[in-house]
C-alpha cells in the first residue's frame, strides 16, 4: 500500500512540475510574427507610445517608429482609408500596434496561424473595459468602410483601399458598441472584458504608466497558470495531492 501511495505522490508532483513549466513557457515571450524579435530584451530608444515596453520589448526601435506612421513599411496599412482619423482615434491604433509588436506578455493568447507573413497571432486577449470603451469613444466620429480590418481590402495599389461598393461611414455605423469594435476589427484578437477593469489583474492594458511597472506581467502569469485544464495542470494536480496526503499519513 505504501509503495502505491508513494508512487502516486511522485506522479502527482511530476504533473504539477509539468503544469508550472507549461505556464512559465507562456511568460516573457515574443510571437513568431513578421517584425518581432526572437526574444524580448531591453530597447532604450523605443519611440513615443511604444516606450512603456523599453525595459523588455519584442520590438526594435525602428519598428516602434514605423508603428506611428500611416502606411509604413511594417504592413503598408493605411489607417486613413476614409479620410484622416482624428488624432485621439489614431492614438489608439498606434497603441494597439505597440502592444502587438512590443509586448512580451501575450503568451497565453498566442496561437499558430497558417499565413504567408507570420506563423503566430494572438486570439481573445482580455482587453480591459476602460481601454475598449475609450477606443470606441475616441473613434466613433472617425470614418471607415469595414468592420473587419484583417481581410477583404483592395490591395491593388500596394496599400489597403476600401473594396468596391464599401461605403465610408462613421465608426459607430460599423461598430455600434465598444465590444463590436474591440472584438471585430482584428478578427477576435481581443475579447472585450465587461467585468474586469484596470488594476484587476485579469485584463490586459494597452495604456499604462511604466513608472508604476507593467501590470500586464501579472495578468499574463495569472492566465498562464490557469490555461491548461488537463491532468498536468496545477489546478487539477493540487486537489489530487490533497486527497492523497491522508492516505500517505496512514500508510
UniProtKB/TrEMBL annotation:
Domain of life per record: Eukaryota
Cleavable signal peptide: 1-19
Record-annotated Folate receptor-like domain positions: 29-205
InterPro entries membership: Folate_rcpt (IPR004269), Folate_rcpt-like (IPR018143)
Key words of the record: Disulfide bond, Signal
Alphabetical list of Pfam families matching this protein: Folate_rec
PANTHER family per the UniProt record, alphabetical: FOLATE RECEPTOR, FOLATE RECEPTOR 1-RELATED
Similarity field: Belongs to the folate receptor family.
Official protein name in the record: Folate receptor alpha-like
Organism this protein belongs to: Monodelphis domestica
